[in-house]
Amino acid sequence: MRICKTPDETRDALKNESAIAFVPTMGNLHAGHVSLVAQARSRGGTTVASIFVNPLQFGPNEDFDSYPRTFGADCEKLENAGVDFLFAPTEREFYPEPQTYRVELPGIQNQLEGRFRPGHFSGVATVVLKLFHIVRPQVAFFGKKDYQQLMVLRNMVRQLALPIEIVGGETVRDGDGLALSSRNAFLTPAGRAEAPRLYRALGRAREAVLRGDADFSAIERDAALDLDTNGWKTDYVAVRRQSDLQTPLPGDRDLVVLAASRLGTPRLIDNLEMTREG
Ligand code: PAF
Questions:
Q1: What atom in ligand 1 is closest to the CA of residue 128?
Q2: Which domains does the chain have, with CATH numbers?
């Protein structure tokens, strides 16, 4: 695996590669990332990953400083997974001047995650667009755990006519259902034992919708209550349609239930997709 530090070095290293499959990450890699790399490799072209903890997508009171940075272990995992090139710039190399030009997003950026993380999705879209310009992939892979991020990026690529296929990788879970996440490292042992409740609450919400219950507000309230009476502080539980994360209309079949909740300091997010009978 060749490690490139600067945008120029990366462009130069990739200039003769025509079929690039790209996995952007912020490092602290787990089995979810490795499964995205495996999907990228299965395309048969050149596999490129990036590691960059992007300050633009963190709010002033968020965990940018404490975000786990494990570069040596990450390189080993990427190398073992068969990545050909890694783009790993420093902040100065990636943002040599203040990034004042940013991607402007529609109203969804202020809903769900965006309501609790103002500016987050604009920061994500800006870094990903810039990464796309440097790496110039044909296909890029993002985990479904960050469902709203995946939706925002998919729609950005379509509306801006970028010639890039966006693929959503299934969430990888521990045996008890907890979705793998870099932020799980912040859970206490008691928190780790409690954490799968989020997955179970989402599972019950999904069952209710699939049974034909259309009172989404009540379903969302029940799930939030289950969490909050067990020590969580829930930001939202929401049943939305998959395509644009708006409130489902009666005919919408492809839905997703999403949640974010705090268990002590760590804030966990998760979601489950579902397809209603027509
Ligand atoms: O999902 C992530 O790890 C990040 O949001 C991404 C897509 C690499 C952009 O910084």
A1: 9
A2: 2-169 (3.40.50.620), 182-273 (3.30.1300.10)
